[in-house]
Write a sequence for this structure.
């Protein structure tokens, strides 16, 4: 069976000087699969996510193919993509404060996602559904959260509201771009747990839970969420494989270096840490 | 598109400045000279833009008008900067109570448009270039205070200020070394925009007879004189109006262009 | 043991918010202390008090003025309009040190510390935006070292850096603390970083010290529930590669 998301030779350039952000990226995502995209700043991981969602700025030139359930996304009109977004595609961003409208109550923003995709029903029903979603996200007082403005909520609460918005319409594919980087470690643990649980929810229409493309610079976080891993550097994929494969037996020197420097918990205190040499 | 603003703006400003400078050393005719026999002539080889109802050469008066425009712009922006910038820095760097006090005072000053101040001053001291200057200058102080304050607050929130404090650097040195250089571009842009507003204000004041007094040629005064002849000799109003528009537009575009020019340079490489 | 900093029942209030709620702490020469806590724990406020940037609302505090600070954000901690050599030499222009460091001496010292952090002295002519995040953090460290401080505070020194760069900066800090015989106070939410650099740790939560002691002990045998929760929440690769501890940072 063809993978749900099939990316072939994705290349993204920016501006008049055609700066290369992503080069020749291939990616397959099966239904219900969890794939991690790991890389540092400038590796092109966020650009890849934005390209799939069709959210790149005006000055981006995209070549290659992105097929979602067989439909080609590259070159599609924004109107077509808008219909897909929030419906078949969901995205969770890093900065919940900027991704949420500060002038609208949280509950209303979640309801908006429902209504935009025609599942609102009567106004009263939308509110019930919203409270249900927020509760499912593990929020202790869903009514209070729904009636609050973003600035009245904590970082963890805001991120869960964003996740509720991304998952409201049971999309087939959820892309998470550093969703917990801005959160405290204890909050991060809880949010990741909630995310794992929600992704596993099986809808009547689907046989499996939602597929997830999880992007992060934090190896341990990615490892807790994904079965497969892609390592990106300078716009290219340098290594790919199952989680176990990549972590225990990295082949590319960059990946090896990354594994070594990431395992701070293994180093003996005060010792010199292994570093990645330039050009690896 | 952004570069076009800068180019057009600079051209218009240059035109204004050159006119003013030129008129200091040479004009085809005496700008204040009166010659009733040559009144209301159409543009010709002798009088390039014709003559007004008193027989004065329009072209000479037009380019001379640039002098007042520039002087008023420069001095009033100068006054506003000299008073407004230190106030803004004090407000942005100082303790809470001082900051709030300055904001309140600025708000009060904001309530007085240049024209109102000019009327007050003219009533007391009689209209003149100086009263016009002072009125516009004082009326522009709040803008500079506000912009400086906003910029200073932004800089103060940066860690390099805290680093300087940890190192024991005094407040005055921090202002001089860190705050002012970082808000300088912002202030440059503001100066340009305020210059444009000052030109407009000066035109309004001299139109109302509150600023520079006749016979010194100013564009506002030329407009005033031309209003009775608006339908018979539209050119007399058109030229000063065009001059005012060109100067105001020029300084505004220059400010916009500068703002865009400075922005990308401040952006990080990595 | 010379006590460089002593805080007794330190309280800091901003209006209705209490940032520090009775903190008692002593830092002695040669300590390598880690302060861990999440947002709102008060760790930043505590450091500001210790550096003299914040006056406590109540409580007693003795501090040594000979301390410098390295910040988290390498972008905002360097003045974008100043040359690197001037940034690094700035602490030497303070009232206290001005007489000791006339211009020529300042320049020499700036070149010296730049070399110490692994940069070339001629790179001092450049501006911050010409350097990478990791290099900027080194510049910040050079600036902190210039006045030869006794104590170095580091507030999340590697959190804003890429993983591959973190190791380099951590190595640099390890080396410098050793060669310059610095007392180190490291503030971080990253428990692994604290374990790597500090032999003593203080755990903070909502303005109070919840637990403190030698790092190995606190991490290995946490007494308080919050400490346990914190340690358990840290995601680690654990047993995935067949080596290393299965339960995170505990051994």
């Amino acid at each position: 069976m063809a993978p749900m998301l099939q990316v072939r030779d994705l290349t993204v350039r920016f501006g008049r000087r055609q700066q290369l952000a992503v080069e020749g990226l291939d990616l397959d995502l099966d239904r219900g699969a969890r794939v991690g995209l790991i890389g540092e700043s400038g590796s092109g991981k966020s650009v890849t996510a934005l390209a799939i969602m069709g959210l790149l700025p005006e000055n981006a030139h995209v070549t290659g193919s992105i097929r979602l359930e067989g439909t080609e996304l590259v070159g599609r009109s924004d109107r077509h993509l808008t219909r897909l977004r929030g419906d078949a595609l969901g995205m969770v961003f890093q900065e919940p404060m900027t991704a949420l409208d500060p002038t609208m109550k949280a509950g209303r923003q979640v309801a908006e996602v429902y209504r935009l995709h025609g599942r609102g029903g009567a106004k009263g029903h939308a509110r019930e559904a919203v409270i249900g979603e927020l509760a499912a996200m593990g929020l202790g007082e869903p009514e209070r959260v729904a009636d609050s403005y973003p600035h009245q909520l904590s970082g963890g609460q805001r991120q869960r509201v964003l996740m509720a918005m991304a998952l409201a319409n049971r999309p087939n594919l959820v892309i998470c771009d550093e969703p917990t980087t801005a959160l405290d470690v204890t909050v991060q643990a809880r949010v990741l747990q909630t995310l794992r649980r929600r992704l596993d929810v099986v809808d009547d229409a689907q046989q499996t839970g939602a597929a997830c493309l999880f992007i992060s610079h934090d190896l341990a976080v990615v490892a807790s969420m994904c079965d497969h891993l892609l390592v990106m550097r300078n716009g290219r994929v340098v290594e790919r494989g199952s989680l176990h494969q990549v972590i225990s037996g990295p082949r590319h020197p960059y990946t090896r270096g990354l594994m070594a420097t990431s395992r701070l918990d293994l180093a003996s205190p005060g010792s010199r840490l292994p570093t990645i040499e330039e050009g690896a | 598109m952004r570069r076009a603003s800068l180019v057009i703006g600079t051209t218009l400003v240059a035109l204004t400045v050159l006119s003013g400078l030129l008129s200091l050393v040479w004009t085809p005719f005496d700008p204040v000279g009166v010659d009733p026999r040559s009144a209301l002539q159409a543009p010709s080889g002798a009088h390039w833009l014709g003559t007004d109802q008193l027989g004065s050469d329009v072209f000479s008066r037009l380019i001379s008008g640039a002098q007042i425009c520039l002087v008023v712009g420069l001095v009033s922006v100068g006054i506003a900067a000299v008073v407004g910038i230190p106030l803004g820095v004090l407000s942005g760097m100082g303790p809470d109570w001082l900051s709030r006090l300055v904001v309140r005072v600025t708000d009060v000053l904001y309530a007085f448009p240049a024209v109102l101040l000019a009327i007050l001053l003219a009533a007391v001291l009689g209209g003149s270039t100086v009263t016009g200057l002072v009125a516009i200058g004082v009326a522009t102080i709040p803008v500079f205070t506000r912009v400086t304050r906003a910029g200073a607050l932004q800089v103060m929130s940066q860690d390099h200020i805290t680093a300087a404090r940890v190192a024991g650097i005094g407040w005055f040195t921090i202002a001089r070394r860190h705050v002012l250089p970082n808000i300088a571009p912002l202030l440059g842009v503001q100066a340009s925009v305020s210059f444009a507003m000052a030109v407009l204000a000066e035109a309004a004041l001299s139109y109302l007879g509150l600023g520079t007094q006749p016979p010194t040629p100013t564009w506002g005064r030329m407009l005033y004189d031309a209003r009775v002849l608006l339908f018979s000799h539209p050119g007399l109003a058109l030229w000063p109006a065009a001059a005012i528009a060109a100067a105001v537009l020029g300084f505004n575009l220059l400010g916009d262009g500068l703002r865009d020019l400075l922005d990308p340079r401040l952006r990080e490489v990595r | 043991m010379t006590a460089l900093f002593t805080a007794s029942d330190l309280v800091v209030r901003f209006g209705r918010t209490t940032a520090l709620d009775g903190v008692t702490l002593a830092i002695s020469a040669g300590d390598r202390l880690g302060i861990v806590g999440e947002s709102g724990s008060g760790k930043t406020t505590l450091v500001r008090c210790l550096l003299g940037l914040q006056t406590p609302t109540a409580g007693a505090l003795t501090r040594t003025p000979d301390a410098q600070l390295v910040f988290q954000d390498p972008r905002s901690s360097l003045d974008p309009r100043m040359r690197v050599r001037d940034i690094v030499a700035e602490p030497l222009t303070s009232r206290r040190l001005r007489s000791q460091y006339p211009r020529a001496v300042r320049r020499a010292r700036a070149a010296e510390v730049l070399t110490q952090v692994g940069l070339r002295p001629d790179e001092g002519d450049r501006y911050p935006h010409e350097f990478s995040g990791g290099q900027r953090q080194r510049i910040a460290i050079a600036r902190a070292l210039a006045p030869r401080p006794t104590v170095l505070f580091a507030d999340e020194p590697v959190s804003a850096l890429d993983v591959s760069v973190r190791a380099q900066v951590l190595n640099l800090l390890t080396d410098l603390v050793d060669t310059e015989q610095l007392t180190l106070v490291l503030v971080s939410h990253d428990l692994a970083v604290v374990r790597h650099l500090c032999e003593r740790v203080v755990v903070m939560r909502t303005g109070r010290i919840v637990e403190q002691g030698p790092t190995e002990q606190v991490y290995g045998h946490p007494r308080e529930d919050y400490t346990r929760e914190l340690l358990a929440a840290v995601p680690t690769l654990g047993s995935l590669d067949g080596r290393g501890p299965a339960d995170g940072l505990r051994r």
